Amino acid sequence: KDQWSALQNGTYCAAARLLAKAKFESDMAKKSGSAKRKAAARDGNTAKKAKCGNENTASSNALAKEDAKLLIDRIQAVEGISGIEVYDTCPQLVAKIKKFLARGGMTKANLLRAFGNINSNSLGRFLSGKGQDQCASVTYKAAYVFFEKLRIMEGKPKTKSRLKNESEQIGGFSLIKRRAGGW
Question: Which of 3, 27, 100, 154 sits at 20 to 30 Å (Cα–Cα) from 108?
């Protein structure tokens, strides 16, 4: 038997093709991985900066987190907001949540505690919802109350969209989700 006698076996040919394909894919993954590393190096090596960062960076992060907790405490101290109608749409609240989380030191865990110890899955589902389909979520009303307290604490007036919703939605938006597949 010589080296080419195995080619008559169909299993050998299929295995050889499979191994060649796997080798090609791993080579391509290595090449794209090195391209990603080069792009990261070009953008500024953020991981190395974090590892080699000063103590000032760590202390400033701790201060930012402490400031965020104090802000949440001040927001929760605002009185007179309970059992109210909701006049913001789900997409408006999603935008407010994302903007609030972008503040320095703010974490989802702190925000969930401020909403009343809501489960993170509930927040994730609410943030990924489309339109008004998450109106029955516990996050919807809790987030509205939180951001209404924030608005009052900061002394900001009601927005144009809020005033429009108040005039169009007498009694606020529904907190009950319509059943799908109805006649």
Answer: 154
